[in-house]
Each structure stands twice: as structure tokens, then as C-alpha cells.
Write a structure and sequence with these properties.
By secondary structure, this protein is an alpha/beta fold. It is built from 11 helices and 15 strands. Strand 8, helix 6 and strand 9 (about 185-190) form a beta-alpha-beta unit.
Length: about 325
């Protein structure tokens, strides 16, 4: 079943920012990574999907319900990037307030609120006032608020940006649990490691428009990199290999004994076999040849290299 569907979703602002012609499909139970540099328009898209602002053009739906409608809002939980909670309340009181806004029955709230506070790592601090929480603690509180209504779709805008490495690891574990439970997760994040480990599909946005989208496997396979560990290497051989093959070679590591690690972008295994033969013909020893998985951060940087971007959040 389709959880999120957008067709030509567009938001124009007087300053020229916003987003244009955003079309994506997210299926139920998927985690979708929405990526892009600052100013790409990611937060603008999220705000339209959760009903905080209205599109200029296009349309979108959540499980078939038009975005912005009460029926659509009942389906979602939302953690904004810029979160603010009533500092005079305790953490528990904030989550109970959100439970009331979700019209959660009192008995269910009594059960869910303590469980959520414990799960997001607030625990014994739940009765402290929010004004005494760090930014990371407030972000944990925001996760509990987003989850208290047991939503079918979670919209998370940089959900662990204020946390230390331990907190980020705990949030990553929680998101994997939610995905395993069948929740649909729409994740806007600059933490590529989290996106790569969690998400089924990603879209890359720049200057308000989608540059690429697909499964994580698809985008990472666009530039398959082979790593070759060789012996008998001399620097001049690198230029020879580049000239002979026309391939993009990189010297990843070298040792005084003549061993080295070369990296090359290859199209297929047949091309790799041809390269192996060339290396052996030049008197080098081929110790190891492996296909290296391109990391999502490397793909992100490569796709945006040389392209202008707005540099500020839209």
C-alpha cells in the first residue's frame, strides 16, 4: 500500500526558495531518506506533507488522504528540526499534553507515556522541567511526542542532530525497531550513516528539485568501485594504467616495499578481469581484488560536486 504520494508538489516563496515539481512514492513500512544540502527545500516539503503550509501547485496524499486534511494529520507523528516545548512543564507533562491533542484515552495515555519516556532515554528525568533539559534531551522528548499517538507515518526532520554519539546510536536503534513494527518513516537527515543503514529508498534534492531517487542499492551501484591490492607497484604505473584504460584510478595507499592499494571505477566484472590481466602483464602481483561498496556520503558529495546550492534552509 502507498503511504506517501506526491505529484508535482511545489511551493514558491517570494524570495525564490521553496521546492518545485517534487514527485515521490513511499510504500507502507518503508523508511525513506530525504537528502540534500542546506537550502535544498527539504524542510519545506516536510512542512507541506504534515499540513503546516500549503502547496502552490501539485498534490500529495498520506494513505490516500489529502495532505493537510484532518484525516491525514491523524495518521502522522512529526518531529520538526526546530523544536520548542513548554519549558515550565515537566517532560512527562509535555508528552501527556500531546497525548490529549491526539485524543488518546486516559488509560492508554497512562500506559504509553511512561513507556515512551523510558524508551527514548528520558526515564528518571521525566519529572524534571523542560527548561533544565539539554538540547539533546529535548530532542528525545520530541521523539516521544511524535510517537505518543501511535502514528502510521513518522516525519522526522534531523531527529538526532543535537545528540552525542551515544544518543544518535540509541535513536538509530529505535528507528530500526519502529520500521520492524511496520511504521513508515520519512527521514530528513544529514547523517548519511543513519540513512544508509535504515532507509529502503532515498531522494536527493538540490535547489528545490529532485536530482536523483531510487533504492539505496541502486544509487550506490551507479559508480561501482573496485579495490586492488598489488605488489611491485611504481608511481609511473598509475599514469600508464590511466592512459591505457581511460579509467579513473586512485592510489588509496602505498608502502615502501612496493605494495599499494588502487581504486578504479569499473562497469562490470568483465572489465575487472581485463584490468587484472593488464596489471599482471606489467609485472605487478595481484594480491586481492574486491568490489568496494560506495558509501552514501561519498555518493552525496559526488552528485552535488560542482553544483550550486542555496546554502540556507528554505
Amino acid at each position: 500500500m502507498i503511504a506517501i504520494q506526491t505529484e508535482g508538489l511545489t511551493k514558491r516563496f517570494d524570495n525564490g526558495r521553496g521546492c518545485s515539481d517534487v514527485s515521490i512514492t513511499v510504500r507502507e513500512g518503508e523508511a525513506f531518506g530525504f537528502l540534500g544540502p542546506n537550502g535544498a527545500g527539504k524542510s519545506t516539503c516536510v512542512k507541506m506533507l504534515v499540513g503546516l503550509i500549503f502547496p502552490t501547485e501539485g498534490r500529495a496524499s498520506l494513505f490516500g488522504e489529502p495532505i493537510g486534511s484532518l484525516s491525514a494529520r491523524r495518521l502522522l507523528g512529526y518531529l520538526p528540526e526546530l523544536y520548542r516545548y513548554q519549558e515550565w512543564l515537566t517532560g512527562e507533562e509535555v508528552v501527556r499534553l500531546h497525548a490529549q491533542m491526539c485524543r488518546l484515552p486516559r488509560a492508554e495515555a497512562d500506559r504509553r507515556v511512561p513507556q515512551l519516556l523510558e524508551r527514548v532515554g528520558i526515564g528518571l528525568r521525566s519529572r524534571d522541567r523542560v527548561k533544565n533539559y539539554s538540547k539533546g534531551m529535548q530532542q528525545r522528548l520530541g521523539l516521544a511526542c511524535a510517537l505518543v499517538g501511535d502514528p502510521r507515518i513518522l516525519f522526522l526532520d534531523e531527529p538526532s542532530s543535537a545528540m552525542d554519539p551515544i544518543g544518535r546510536s540509541e535513536v538509530r536503534e529505535l528507528l530500526h525497531e519502529l520500521k520492524a513494527q511496520g511504521k513508515t518513516i520519512f527521514l530528513n537527515s544529514h547523517l548519511m550513516e543513519d540513512v544508509e543503514s535504515l532507509c529502503n529508498r532515498v531522494a536527493l534534492l538540490n535547489n528545490g528539485r529532485i536530482l536523483q531517487q531510487g533504492t539505496v542499492e541502486e544509487v550506490l551501484q551507479q559508480r561501482p568501485v573496485w579495490r586492488l591490492r598489488v605488489g611491485g607497484f611504481a608511481p609511473a604505473l598509475l599514469d600508464w594504467l590511466r592512459g591505457e584504460t581511460g579509467l579513473a584510478f586512485r592510489l588509496a595507499a602505498s608502502e615502501p616495499d612496493g605494495s599499494a592499494v588502487l581504486e578504479a571505477e569499473l562497469e562490470n566484472e568483465e572489465q575487472a578481469g581485463w584490468l587484472h590481466a593488464l596489471i599482471l602483464d606489467q609485472g605487478m602481483t595481484l594480491y586481492e581484488s574486491t568490489r568496494a561498496k560506495t558509501r552514501l556520503e561519498e555518493w552525496f558529495v559526488t552528485e552535488l560536486s560542482g553544483k550550486s546550492h542555496r546554502g540556507e534552509k528554505a
